[in-house]
């Protein structure tokens, strides 16, 4: 099922994925309804452990709560130490795609294979200071390569354009992998992301900081498509 989801996202690219980090956790049902009304095609869920990154968010129960609320693909971004110890629990909670950070594991390729063996799409992320070289050997195992345009850990940070060069480098190395960008993506930066070749655009504050999600997603989508 998750492989089908990936094919759908590839077909629909560029696709905006709302990052729920800044949503109203007191009313998840309403937040999902508002995002569905805005036409979003997948949700991006940020899991932080306070160790790999200096911030904590949520774990499997919140992923499971979103799973109960929607059939949209759930793209789970693990910003945690030893993610390999938890991937089964995230799959059981309802994740469709699980992305691990290359900086957090010893053997990226083997962790991606483990994610696949659970039936999930497998993604690998790198922070702005981590070179693409760090994931070259693992790329053939990845469905998705996430280029962080901020240091993982917080929403609302400024966009780091180093991610754009890395998107181009990943595309040169691998024509099949879906390329996602995450951090500081907004109306001013989204065009540069799709122009560079990003397929999936994670957006937090530029949606959840706006009163009207429908207008925010529509304007972001127009800017993304115009530059792609
Ligand atoms: O993974 C992360 C942060 O580490 C993101 O998914 C952010 O939550 C995106 O938020 P904005 O930068 O768009 O506000
Ligand atoms: Co994220």
Q: Could you characterize what this model shows?
A:
There is one protein chain. It contains 9 helices and 8 strands. With 228 residues, it is α/β, with parallel strands linked by helices. It has a single domain, classed as Aldolase class I (TIM Barrel, Alpha-Beta Barrel). An 8-stranded parallel β-sheet has the order 1-8-7-6-5-4-3-2, sandwiched between helices. α6 links the parallel β6 and β7 (178-182). α3 (60-69) packs parallel to α4 (87-93) and α7 (190-196) packs parallel to α9. The radius of gyration is 16 Å and the shape is globular. It binds 5-O-phosphono-D-xylulose (5SP) and cobalt (II) ion. Residues 19, 21, 44, 46, 77, 150, 152-157, 182-185, 202-206 line the site of 5-O-phosphono-D-xylulose (5SP).
Outline the biggest β-sheet.
Answer: 8 strands, parallel
The whole-angstrom Rg is 16 Å
CATH architecture verdict: Alpha-Beta Barrel
Q: How much of the residues is beta strand, in percent? A: 15-25%
Spatial gap, N to C terminus: 28 Å
Side by side, the strands of the main sheet go 1-8-7-6-5-4-3-2
């Amino acid at each position: 099922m998750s492989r089908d989801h990936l094919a759908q996202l590839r077909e629909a690219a560029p696709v905006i994925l709302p990052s729920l980090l800044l949503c109203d956790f007191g009313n998840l049902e309403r937040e999902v309804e508002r995002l569905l009304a805005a036409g979003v095609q997948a949700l991006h869920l940020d899991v932080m452990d306070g160790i790999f990154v200096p911030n904590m968010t949520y774990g499997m129960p919140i992923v499971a709560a979103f799973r109960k609320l929607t059939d949209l693909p759930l793209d789970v971004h693990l910003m945690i130490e030893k993610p390999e110890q938890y991937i089964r629990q995230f799959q059981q909670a309802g994740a469709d795609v699980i992305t691990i950070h290359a900086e957090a594991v010893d053997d990226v390729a083997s962790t991606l294979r483990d994610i696949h063996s659970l039936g999930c799409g497998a993604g690998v992320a790198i922070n702005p200071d981590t070179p693409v070289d760090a994931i070259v050997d693992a790329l053939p195992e990845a469905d998705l390569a996430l280029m962080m345009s901020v240091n993982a850990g917080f929403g609302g940070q400024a966009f780091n354009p180093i991610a754009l060069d890395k998107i181009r480098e990943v595309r040169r190395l691998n024509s099949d992998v879906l390329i996602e960008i995450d951090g500081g993506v907004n109306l001013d930066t989204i065009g540069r992301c799709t122009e560079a070749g990003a397929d999936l655009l994670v957006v937090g504050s530029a949606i959840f900081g706006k009163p009207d999600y429908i207008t925010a997603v529509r304007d972001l989508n127009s800017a993304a498509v115009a530059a792609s």
